[in-house]
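QUALITY CONTROL LOG
STEP: pairwise intake check
CHECKER ROLE: data steward
CRITERIA: each record must contain a sequence immediately followed by its structure tokens, with no blank fields

ENTRY 1 OF 2
RESULT FIELD BELOW
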Amino acid sequence: MTDTPHLSNDPSQGDWGDRMEQTVLDAALGLAPRLGWNSRMVRAACEACGLSLGDEELLLPNGARDLATLLSRRHDNRALAELGGIDAKSLKMRERIAKAVSARMEAGAADLEATRRCAAFLALPPNADLGLKLAWESADQLWTWAGDTATDWNHYSKRAILSGILIPALTLRWFDGREAAEAFVAARIENVMAFEKWKAGKDFDAPLKKVADVLSRIRYGAKIPQ
């Protein structure tokens, strides 16, 4: 029988549940290359950590989906730690995005075999929603590091565009290697920069302001121009 990892209940060491999630994730990374990213792997990882089925259901109610989320967020944190040593303001925006995406790709490559299994799991139709959500989370953190402070529609458009780059870039990195992924990212960043140039000076808020004006007039009984 595998020994249960010794986890202190000292509050100064953080929440027990959070620490156990990471301990189970560590076990999962070792098992996924052989078992795949699935419920069988989750049960085996929990057993390796001394958790009963009931404990597993409490800790990871969504099973492999929860572990996929934990892995993606670990990779986000790893990428941000790497980027923390870089002064984003010293770089042009295209360089910031290239650095950010590269750091995120290499963060996942450190767990390459397990990450491949997780990526295949997220590519399944029942899990596509989670894959998109996690890509958005990653894009949000990378844009924040890059210095984006937009709070209008640009906040969402930038993250949507970067999510659209991240998903295929990460897939290329996991299955085709770094060179193919970096070439793809370089080409797509040109698209991002072209979009930024195109939208410069355009008043995208105008339609929303017009709608708000019409609704205000209706609310207060003012005449609406024909």
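ENTRY 2 OF 2
RESULT FIELD BELOW
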Amino acid sequence: MKTLSTLKFANSYSDLAASLGTPILPQPLEHPSLVHFNPLVAEKLELDPAVAHDPSFIDIFSGNTILADMSPLAMKYSGHQFGQYNPDLGDGRGLLLGEVVTSAGKKWDLHLKGSGKTPYSRMGDGRAVLRSSIREYLASTAMAGLGIPTTHALAIIGSQTSVIRENVETAATLVRVAESHLRFGHFEYLFYTGQHQQLQQLADYVIEHHFPELASAPSPYALLFKQICQRTAAMIAAWQAVGFAHGVMNTDNMSILGLTFDYGPFGFLDDYEPSFICNHSDYSGRYAFDQQPAIGLWNLSALGYALTPLLNKTEIDDGLEHYQHQLQQQYSHNMRQKLGLTIADASDTRLFSELLQLLKQYQVDYTLFFRTLSQITIAELTHSEHHFKTLFQCTLALKPWLACYQQRLQLEPDTRQRLATMRQHNPKYILRNYLAQQAIEEAEQGNYQLIEQLMTVLAHPFNEHEHEDAEKLAQLPPHWGKHLEISCSS
């Protein structure tokens, strides 16, 4: 295991075109302190978890100290925000500190979010607040635990630095770790500014570092676009199956590796509501839960257009068709796993849609319904309405669907592992908004205990964490907890 002084850094992104970012040092936080540290992410970096107790760790990730091999850089990109192109984007409150290289040669970006003003801050102060840092920290752990591609977070550093949002809050930094911070917006920026040679250079960089198997292919850029489409489809299919709404699917928030990226006003579904809008600034519902698959296609179309110096129309259309096919296939596969089905059948689409219609009609908790179903044997299904009495206003309405489900299971070649499989794909724990809010409120008073409890269950959300505190985190949310308004404000 490595210490801070033995971390091996690279700065390959900084070696690209100068127009892709601006070297700048972070602005230090006042009286920084460690809020929380994630040893699971430290393991990815081969970093000894004991560094969390080293005062230099806080100094480095509060912006007070820079390691010798770090080359802090604010990335420049652009993107479509709520469908409108905005050329004036970039790392407005973050810095790419450097790229940690493991003993196996794997590269991880080390990124400091909330590090102060950059040339891309526009009218902002470049700071992140403790509130938003906790939300992203918990969310990235929750998504990783669910097996959904995501960025990660190593630690939160709090401070006594005051910042003004709707109210006066304290600033914090989030230490984000990702395989790459490259976004659709990087390519859009180079395309719209006419830097087509640099655009090709960036595409070559992505292939070299993330898709090396494409380098010798006859049409590497077409295959690269297809890979991005495929990864995006897998990510969004996973979102839809688990009930996750991102909230701000602007192209500058879309990862070229299909990672869930830039957590802002995200939300997991409580009651199943397909038109759920988790961002109260999204007045038109552009980024509602049920719009995410279509927005994924829209965003990939924007990326495809930005890649026209490298791709022809047929190659772009092929990639977009691949996205739609993969999204449908992957979502159906995910839903079958949630229902313990191992083979595809023509009746499955109707089975899924009728269930979701019931959940919507009776405002049933999405996560707890599937987790409850994961406890019921096939023989019990047609007389299992009582298991759902705390979830359904009228359990009799569920009975016909349960009978259809039981009949569908008869087509399965082997159902002995059904319940075990379902419990591996239907989490008991998700990051509900009210739990994140409670953790934030306690942390603002200096109590980080709920963060620790949530990190434990969210890292392993399919397990039965059988102790009293954990059970409370899996309960139905209170009425007030279903109606919290979350914005992009950080």
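INTAKE CHECK: passed for both entries
DESCRIPTIVE NOTE, ENTRY 2: Residues 4-182 form one domain.
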